[in-house]
Amino acid sequence: MSSFFTDDPMALRGFDDLHAAADSAKPRVPVAVAGAADATVLSALSQAHARGWVEPILAGAAGEIRSTAATAGVDIGPFKVVDAVDPASAAVAEVHSGRARLLMKGQVDTPALMQAALDKSSGLRTASTVCQIVLMEIVDQNRRFLIADTGITIAPTLAQKADILESLVAAARALGANCPRVALVAATEKVTTAMPDTLDSAELARRNAAGEFGGAVVEGPLSFDLAYSADAGAKKRMVGEVVGAADALLFPNLIAANLAVKAMMYTARSRFGGVLCGLAAPAAFMSRGDSAETRLNSLALALPLVRFVR
Q1: Mean pLDDT per 10-residue run, the chain (310 residues)?
Q2: Where are the domains of the chain?
Q3: Considering the domain 15-180+247-306 in this protein, what is its CATH number?
């Protein structure tokens, strides 16, 4: 599996590199946007289009989209507009038909988008578990890592965690980490029946050691501090390739992952973007309240995954 990048680095790429790679490649990927009548959505798309990243297809009420664009001062003349009462279904249909290769969440509810995306006849369903992967950069500490699942599968089973782990590994490789270091995060690094998540982590680590996931270093259970901080590992006398150096973190459930990522978003000096994996095409996917910068980051994150989607 080759990388989106021209060289062959080991380190996980951050947003500066993702932006630069997209600027250089100018892939002009057709992207279908569900609910495009939003100033931040249109601003991000305008920037991405001007830089040669995407060819936008805007789904939603055409009058609202054009009015929003005029108010925001965004020229949508070069964009295709699909007038639709149901923006989620219309955007998914563009991807399902092959007219678009990338989906983007705009001003639509997540349940509505997922209902359209998972429709058995007209959606983007695959055999894989759908998950949201967030790329988080802690700017002042020069750290970056992927986190899953922050937004879709509430309480994943062991089989679903294995699917999400495969998506994490594939995403990390697409971002330049040839042999990604994955932490299976739990409240403790000790395996105990009192915390079933630790049993799942130990089983996934065992299966990776047996070669099931291939080309990744997977360790767990690990508490977040051990996955993030080499100093914590030294103090707890924990060693391992992932300790203090995780490229990706698989959390035990959505609540833990979502709380962790939101805490970092609002209390740390951070940059972030999100993407859905497990569908027939990736989807740039974050909150409806996010900024144009975060939406642009999400597009930059999704672009290399177009080739690597599971």
Answers
A1: 46 96 97 97 98 98 98 97 98 97 96 96 96 96 96 96 97 95 96 96 96 92 94 89 96 96 94 97 91 97 82
A2: 15-180+247-306
A3: 3.40.718.10
